[in-house]
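#onboarding

Welcome to the new folks! Below is a worked example of what a typical request in this channel looks like: someone posts a single protein sequence, and someone else replies with the predicted structure as tokens. Don't worry about understanding the tokens yet, we'll cover that in week two.

Example request:
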Amino acid sequence: MDFIYSEEFFQWVLLPLMIFAARVADVSLGTLRIVFISKGRRVLAPLIGFVEIFIWIVVIQQIMQNMDNIYYALVYAAGFSCGTYVGVRMEELLALGRLSVRIITPRDCSAFVRELRSNGYGVTQLPGQGATGPMHIIYTMIERKRIVDLTKRLQRFDPKAFFTVEDVRLAREGIFAGKPGYVWISRMFPRAKKK
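Example response:
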């Protein structure tokens, strides 16, 4: 029991755990900060950056005071690695932002387009000409959380369809697939009233 309250316990167990947890937290926050910057979140990104750098300064101070202890450096590096993984997983779970999806298929896609529209997807359909003949081009913009649903529907319709998915930073005046079962109109920038 004396070991738990001893200097050795603090140096070899408690301090390394604190360094590890702090490093996981600050690297995870750094990943989210970069995501928020790329999504144009001008207020949230600096706030996260403040917390991230504060944690980093506190942790690096402990490392610098104990430069002769390789154990702390290893714990610091392990925290960085785990923090990178945790940050990526957090970003995937949050699934922030919108995606633009382009689908190209030789199949008649009328029924597929009707299915998408009846499930809340805003869809634009165009004729096209590919290297092997006439094609149908489908454009849609969705919340990232809906990409799994869309790809499952596409797999059922045409497993060999060519498609691309791209991040969208800004969009306005369209029908976007939001929560399943709902259609909502984005009006991020209302039109100026005519005088």
